[in-house]
Amino acid sequence: MPSVLISGASRGIGRATTLRMARAGWTVYATVRQPADGEELVAAAAGSEVKALLLDVTDDVQIAALDGELPERLDAVVNNAGIVVSGPLETLSAEDVREQFEVNVVGAVALTNLVLPRLREARGRIVFVSSLSGVISTPMTGAYNASKFAIEAIADAWRLELRPWGIKVVLVEPAMTDTDLWRNAPETLEAEAAEMSEEHRQLYGEHLDGMRRAVPRIQKMAKPVEGVAATIERALTSARPRARYAVGVDVKVQAALSGLTPDRVKDAAFGRLTGTPTRPR
């Protein structure tokens, strides 16, 4: 029975992937941050092989302790845990940016390094849940974009570095997905605005208003998590996996056009989509 470690399995893509792989006959080691989330996940698996493990990917002690809870053989790891730190870059503190990278980038590297000896023994597989946001950058999400661009670069480097041992490294690139990120986007936007200084609220008022108009449209575009989970399963089970799997035709088209479209045209398009002004009010 093949085995996989999936980070960030409490909800969204991680939860859907955990249940899908368990029902496909895999033993899934699923990391969560709260015991109650682990209990719920195991119950939802309804007898399939899901073992919930407590882990904060930014905690080096917890990552090291995970070594004693995993089997000697591991066939794959899915680096899914992630957060979104959004807002105009000028309004973000150094601590905000560090947190974005600690979770999305440093944590993923640390977790992968922990299990690499097991993957080398199994000639296993590493999957990174990236995003269209790792290919195309947009206003108000610059820190998140930067973290996903970093994951793309890390996966590309690791794919070459680990080739001698037959370890495949795969990127999965969804776009807007129906998770808590987009369901809670209006509340998140208002919370971020409330935390800004009065000066920044004045400077970026039109940006915020533009996002207030854009979020409902983006929510309607969000795809079900099951489609991403199905793509991750393909990345884990294909005999000859691709380096990248864009999830959905629209994502493939956007990614392809991005490389062909002049920056000035892209800037205008994303400005209209997000309601970002071109001049100060």
Q: Which percent range describes the beta-strand content?
A: 5-15%
Number of domains: 1
CATH architecture: 3-Layer(aba) Sandwich
Number of strands: 7
CATH topology: Rossmann fold
Radius of gyration: 19 Å
Major β-sheet annotation: 7 strands, parallel
Q: State the fourth-level CATH superfamily.
A: NAD(P)-binding Rossmann-like Domain
Low-confidence stretches: none
Task: Report on this structure.
There is one protein chain. The chain has 12 helices and 7 strands. Helix 4 (94-122) packs parallel to helix 5 and helix 7 packs antiparallel against helix 9. It has a single domain, classed as Rossmann fold (3-Layer(aba) Sandwich). By secondary structure, the protein is α/β, with parallel strands linked by helices. A 7-stranded parallel β-sheet has the order 3-2-1-4-5-6-7, with helices on both faces. The protein has helices at 12-23, 35-45, 60-66, 94-122, 142-161, 180-183, 185-195, 198-203, 205-221, 225-237, 249-260, 263-274, and strands at residues 3-6, 27-32, 50-54, 76-79, 125-129, 168-173, 244-246. It starts with a strand and ends in a 7-residue tail after the last helix.
Topology at a glance:
Blueprint: E1 3-6, H1 12-23, E2 27-32, H2 35-45, E3 50-54, H3 60-66, E4 76-79, H4 94-122, E5 125-129, H5 142-161, E6 168-173, H6 180-183, H7 185-195, H8 198-203, H9 205-221, H10 225-237, E7 244-246, H11 249-260, H12 263-274
Parallel strand pairs: 1-2, 1-4, 2-3, 4-5, 5-6, 6-7
Helix pairs in contact: 1-10, 4-5, 7-9
